[in-house]
Write a structure and sequence with these properties.
The structure is a single chain. The chain contains 4 helices and no strands. It is mainly α. The N and C termini lie far apart (about 35 Å). The C terminus is likely disordered.
Length: about 70
């Protein structure tokens, strides 16, 4: 699996709709696979803010639990 290609396509998708929670979440997953956790956590945080239900769990798993429910 080429996650760097996935990053490229998710970023392109987000150019058209920066509030796409699902694309933002999946971009975060691709960053995790590339071991880019800072970028992944930024994506998960935004995805959580935009309503992606699975993002909160990834924030806990990879980012020390920073999500809207703990603020």
């Amino acid at each position: 699996k080429d996650y760097s290609v996935a990053v490229k396509y998710f970023k392109k998708s987000l150019e058209n709709n920066k509030y796409d929670a699902n694309a933002r979440y999946n971009l975060g997953i691709a960053y995790v696979k590339l071991n880019k956790l800072i970028e992944a956590c930024e994506c998960f945080k935004l995805a959580d803010e935009y309503g992606e239900l699975d993002a909160a769990a990834k924030l806990v798993q990879y980012c020390g639990g920073e999500n809207k429910s703990t603020e």
